[in-house]
Fold:
Amino acid sequence: MAEHLREKLKAEGIKGVSAEGLNRCDWVLLDAGDVLVHLFRPEVRSFYNLEKMWGLDLPESDKGEGLSVHTA
Structure:
């Protein structure tokens, strides 16, 4: 997924997209300048419990599934 997204970003003209964590693929960070993308395996995402860290309460149907989007 990370490689696919990185290729799509490059195809859209976003230069210098870097990736960290590809060797283990537990948590991959894509840095596209103004946009950061975090990709987690479900058990790693659950371990870090980002919703709790950000103080967000998600509906039960959304916990641990799908994509999370956080804006500052």
